[in-house]
């Protein structure tokens, strides 16, 4: 099978063209292919599939073999891939995902995609939709206790479930330990991605994300949208924010009501063959 390896700010993916529907991956296949020592190595696998109503369809697996409904960094990689490989030669690409249709606008210079602006759709704050078991109208700066530790969380569905926590210090060991605990806590029946945010100003944040099904990654696109939205909802951020992630920067824009926009790059790393 021919594959391509792409990354969005270090959040890396293996892309297979499955328009002929011949690829069927078990959770074990996904874990083996994504393994960083015994496989190709990646945070996830993307399948390119035909869509009945949209330009193309993206299907995504996390590196632990689970399926994700959406992924912000993956969608930029996917848009660049389908454009540059001539699968969808359009500047505005409508991509079907399990979280709905995602519209990606690509900027092209000399046939190469240099930047992708994505309409990430509307975020959903209803706790039942996330899903989150806290009884309230909105999980906004709500206190939870896990293993005798208190956290103030803002939670939402941004294509996938996200929890945001504001912190003064971002320490890797704490992010890994607390991220794992919160991801698997009983408050989130379908688990959650966990975002730790340090606010630098009303227009600039540092973000570290512990991802559901993939662990501590270098960047998270849906997490960037969720974190900026949480900052706006809690009155801490303005409508356009520069997000510094471990693997690079994204720009997120939200007017507080309608769709949320993400802008950033994507990179092809290499291509290969796997049996
Ligand atoms: N890396 C992502 C999110 C991928 C999905 C996530 N691991 C989940 O299962 O919810 C992004 O860039 O948005």
Description:
The structure is a single chain. 17% of the residues lie in helices and 43% in strands. The chain is an alpha+beta fold and 275 residues long. It has 2 domains: 2-119 and 264-273, Diaminopimelate Epimerase, Chain A, domain 1, CATH 3.10.310; 142-258, Diaminopimelate Epimerase, Chain A, domain 1 (Roll). The protein has an 18-stranded mixed sheet that branches. It is globular, with a radius of gyration of 18 Å. The structure holds the ligand N[C@@H](CCC[C@H](N)C(=O)O)C(=O)O. Residues 11, 62, 68, 71-73, 160, 193, 211-214, 217, 220-223 line the site of the ligand N[C@@H](CCC[C@H](N)C(=O)O)C(=O)O. One of its GO terms (cellular component) is cytosol. Pathway: Amino-acid biosynthesis; L-lysine biosynthesis via DAP pathway; DL-2,6-diaminopimelate from LL-2,6-diaminopimelate: step 1/1. Its EC number is 5.1.1.7. It comes from Lutispora thermophila DSM 19022.
User: If you average the pLDDT, what whole number results?
Assistant: 97
Give the CATH architecture of the largest domain.
Roll
Rg (C-alpha, Å): 18 Å
CATH superfamily of the largest domain: Diaminopimelate Epimerase, Chain A, domain 1
Tally of structural domains: 2
Subunit structure: Homodimer.
InterPro entries: DAP_epimerase_AS, DAP_epimerase_DapF
GO molecular function, one term: diaminopimelate epimerase activity
Function: Catalyzes the stereoinversion of LL-2,6-diaminopimelate (L,L-DAP) to meso-diaminopimelate (meso-DAP), a precursor of L-lysine and an essential component of the bacterial peptidoglycan.
């Amino acid at each position: 099978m021919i594959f391509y390896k792409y990354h969005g700010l270090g959040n890396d993916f293996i892309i297979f063209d499955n328009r002929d529907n011949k690829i069927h991956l078990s959770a074990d296949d996904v874990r083996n292919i994504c393994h960083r020592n015994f496989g190709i190595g990646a945070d996830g696998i993307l399948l390119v599939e035909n869509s009945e109503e949209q330009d193309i369809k993206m299907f995504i697996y996390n590196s632990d073999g689970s399926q994700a409904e959406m992924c912000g960094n993956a969608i930029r990689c996917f848009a660049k891939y389908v454009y540059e490989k001539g699968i969808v030669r359009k500047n505005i690409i409508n991509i079907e995902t399990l979280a709905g249709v995602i519209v990606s606008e690509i900027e092209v210079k000399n046939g190469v995609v240099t930047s992708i602006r994505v309409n990430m759709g509307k975020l959903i704050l209803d706790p039942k939709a996330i899903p989150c078991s806290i009884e309230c109208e909105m999980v906004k700066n709500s206190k939870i206790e896990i293993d005798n530790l208190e956290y103030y969380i803002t939670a939402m569905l941004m294509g996938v479930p996200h929890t945001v926590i504001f912190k003064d210090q971002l320490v890797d060991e704490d992010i890994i330990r607390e991220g794992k605990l919160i991801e698997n806590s009983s408050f989130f029946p379908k688990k959650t991605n966990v975002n730790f945010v340090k606010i630098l100003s009303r227009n600039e944040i540092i973000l570290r994300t512990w991802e559901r099904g993939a662990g501590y990654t270098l960047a998270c696109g849906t997490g960037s949208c969720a974190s900026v939205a949480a900052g706006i909802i809690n009155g801490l951020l303005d409508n356009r924010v520069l997000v510094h992630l471990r693997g690079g920067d994204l720009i997120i824009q939200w007017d507080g009501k309608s769709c949320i926009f993400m802008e950033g790059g994507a990179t092809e790393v290499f291509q290969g063959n796997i049996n």
